[in-house]
Amino acid sequence: MTPPPRPSKVFAVHLNYPSRAAQRGRTPSVPSYFMKPPSSISGDGDTLVRPAGAELLTFEGEVAVIIGKAARNVAPEAARAHIGWFAPANDAGIADFRWADRGSNILSKGQDGFTPLGTPVEAGEVRNGGLRLRTRVNGELRQDDTTETLFFPFELLIADLSRFITLEPGDVILTGTPAGAGVLQPGDVVEVELEGFGSVRSEVVDGGAPASAYGAQPRVDDATRAEAFGTVVPRFTPLSDDTKRILRYVSTATLTVQLARRGVRDTFIREVRPTRPDLRLLGHAFTLRYVPLREDVRDAAGPGLNAQKRAVESIGPDEVLVMEARGEAGAGTIGDILAARTLARGATGIVTDGGMRDSAAVAELDIPVYFRNPHPAVLGLKHFPLDVNVPVACGGVLVLPGDVLVGDAEGVVVIPAALAAEVAQSAEQQEDEEAWALERVQAGESTVGIYPLTDERRAEFDAWRSARRR
Which of these, 382, 392, 385, 381, lies nearest to 301 by C-alpha position? Predict the structure, then answer.
């Protein structure tokens, strides 16, 4: 087996796995990169040195694609022929230096030995979906994912980079890391395995004497630690338990009244209906924007997960997938498989102002779905999915990522996140007043003084409400 020549360049992709994107709280629309010097490459069994004074030596198991044939301005469909080898790799780094070079990652990622690389194996016919990546620390499994989930497949990365940069034989592309990356301590042994292509093993050692005092020195804060340890970055501020309790039962009609009293009047998504009127919807908006199909834009997007699938693979617990489809009724925007996947990822609902495929099957899922009409055609007939988690207009209403959505049998209302707690409390008060008023009317009283409630009857209402809550 012929080994690759020493690389002239080492590229690394920032985000490429949905699981990692969910941790970072953002979903990329295009690949982005940083570079590591060739001197960062080390081999199987070499040590990983944590510099003196640093505390956050991180590991990131990755698939290394190694160029076998020079590539310049190569199309995605031709890029596979330029892959010469695969190897397991560890994109190690020192988070303590990110404050100084977050844009370049030279100090944090480019130190000598910070790219442990396994023995390269000729690529053969293996494609994206055939590669499984696992990382273990002291024998404990920390990362486990397959390259079939990548936002940007290998061929797209090669094509993208080669638009402007000549990729030469031996050049390395580190193709991203899945969730589970974290921090190592001296004495730890980290092993990255690429199934069918071997593994690379490194032991962490302490750097001993501190580095010279000139230049950037290690520095950490809580945010740096959280990122290094792989803590999930929330896309929204969670609602309190009390706010959730209220929003799970008050009507959308009541909520629209309370929003209007605060000057926010156009909040009810128009012309959508529920698949399951028996289910309540509550969650934070995670948005997807469809634009009219234009073939040249679609073709330029190339292979890889489109924005629709990126959204589905990035949505998380307590989020609602909200789709802007321009009210277009002539094609579906989602079907049963992706709806089921949305549910499996912990999402609490789906709202689209366009068509929906497989409506009967979707109605059997235990997730509230609101849609304009059923339509069997796939979205490619009318739509191109363009943007994820951007402001959208759904059913004539502006929806911002993180907004709170509440749905009942009548429809869906959008609540600005900053107003959710206040609106919920006032909505509960309003519904209690209306429940008391209904009791009094059913007992034969006039509506005068009780609907709306006047100051003269408020003490009576307060006593009734207090007794009801005991």
Answer: 385
Can you read off the two tokens belonging to residue 256? Answer: 């629209």
Q: Per residue in 72-106, pLDDT tens?
A: 999 999 999 999 999 999 999 999 998 888 778 99
Q: For the CA atoms of 71, 42, 135, 50, what is the dihedral angle to 10 degrees? A: -130
**CB contact at 8 A, 354 and 385:** no
Give the DSSP H or E segment for 109: helix 106-109
Annotated domain spans of the chain: 10-228, 237-265+420-470, 268-415
Give pLDDT tens digits for 277-288.
999 999 999 999
Q: What is d(CA 446, CA 442) in angstroms, rounded to the nearest whole number?
A: 9
Confidence tier at 203 by pLDDT (50, 70, 90): very high
Could you write out the DSSP letters of every residue in 414-431? Answer: EE-GGGHHHHHHHHHHHH
CATH superfamily of 10-228: Fumarylacetoacetase-like, C-terminal domain (3.90.850.10)
The secondary structure of residue 448, as a DSSP letter, is: T
Residue 231 has pLDDT above 70, yes or no: no
Contact 125, 240 (CB under 8 A): no
Pick the CATH number of 268-415 from 3.40.630.30, 3.50.50.60, 3.30.420.40, 3.50.30.40: 3.50.30.40
- The model's pLDDT over 338-374, given as tens digits with 9 standing for 90+, comes to 999 999 989 999 999 999 999 999 999 999 999 999 9
Quick one: 108 exposed, middle or buried, by C-beta within 10 A (0-12, 13-18, 19+)? buried
Identify the burial level of 296 via C-beta atoms within 10 angstroms of its C-beta, where 0-12 means exposed, 13-18 middle and 19 or more buried: exposed
